[in-house]
Design brief:
The chain is an alpha/beta fold and about 400 residues long. The protein is about 30% helix and about 20% strand. It binds coenzyme A. The site of coenzyme A (COA) has 18 residues, from helix 6.
Length: about 400
Amino acid sequence: MQECVFVDGVRTPNARAHFEKGWFRNLRPDELLTACYDAIFARNKAVDPEKVDAVLVGVANISGCQTDIGRLGWLAGGYPECVPSNTLTNQCPSGMSAIMHAARAIMTGEADIMIAAGVEDMEKVPMGANYDFPQRLGSRYNGVDLLMGSTAEKVAEVYGIARDDMDNMAIWSHKKAYAAQQAGKFKNEIVPIKGVDDAGNEMLVDKDQWVRETIDPAKLKTMQSPFKPGGTVTAATSSPLTAGACALLLMSRKKADELGLSYSYRYHYGVLAGCDPTVMGIGPIPAVKKLFAKTGLKNSDIGAIELNEAFASQSLACIRELGLDNPNAPFEKVNMWGGALALGHPLGESGARIVVTLLNVLKTEKPEARYGMASLCGAFGNAGALTVEKI
Ligand SMILES: CC(C)(COP(=O)(O)OP(=O)(O)OC[C@H]1O[C@@H](n2cnc3c(N)ncnc32)[C@H](O)[C@@H]1OP(=O)(O)O)[C@@H](O)C(=O)NCCC(=O)NCCS
């Protein structure tokens, strides 16, 4: 087996997905991807785009302007026709799946240079757009129970997650994200890109739009659940609607050495897991358990963890059930630079984004750690987890 190393990873900032207020409202998701590809090739001049074995792009909703965005985005960006691509989905873990598939192609020796990416614009292709559910699903599940907000409410109930703990987690997610943003910690991963401000004037977007400098805890207490009468999950404890793209350059160690490119981490192991779609947010529990069982790793071996914050309820349930960190925020090794509650969650992008952030967190905050882990849940009971290892 060849070793697969992470040579680079970049992302656009995450912008609000809104037709009037989103900083990327004038951009298409394929343009966000192009910005990532351009940055990767500009930063790694030794890599000839023609020599890329394949481009794999994860996206949750493959319709409208995200239809076969792997291929069409690559071509629209002016990149070589000879490079094949694959647009893939398993909902939110899509970007992570792209990384796993790319790494495995390299490890088996079928490929040497791969791009794995993730993208979503939740305004231009809203959640659930163009879905045509199999009618037979109706005899197995109540359709309403499969909606993301409903699943978050159910996880809060089943796992006994208190409203105050969720609010507290949202506050800390923003606090950590804001501190990281102010300290310039996202600089290595964020590609500044031209967007528009609220008034429609062109501006260079170089930071995530949703991050709040301050949050009034009293306001959080007054917020109602948009998902269920009397529910406990609110807009503050849900990841917001977001647009963004992320791409990684993965290579066989041999090829990276041949091209004189540097690297610090290799792909270690990755798994997908499934769970009851009506509590889809607990997906990281079976995923991480499976990964630990297969690799023999345990929580104490992991120096930093990126756990996608789809909702505070599901993140807290996973952290507690797996014993990943303190039972309540602030956490020590989970989402050290904040999570999706603050940074946003462009569905297909996040699985790739949390791996890029993990690599930067490891390098910056935990250079002594041997392993880092990323995990996330996804609609309909999809989940993924992977580990990276220091070289
Ligand atoms: C929850 C959700 C419905 C809210 O959508 P929305 O109503 O358009 O959200 P907004 O951003 O307008 O926020 C609503 C209000 O909450 C406030 N708010 C949101 N987050 C807040 C925070 N952290 N602190 C304080 N106020 C906050 C907003 O300021 C706004 O207040 P206003 O009405 O006074 O302006 C939407 O974000 C959502 O569906 N999220 C989940 C997405 C999802 O399912 N992803 C997949 C997961 S697997």
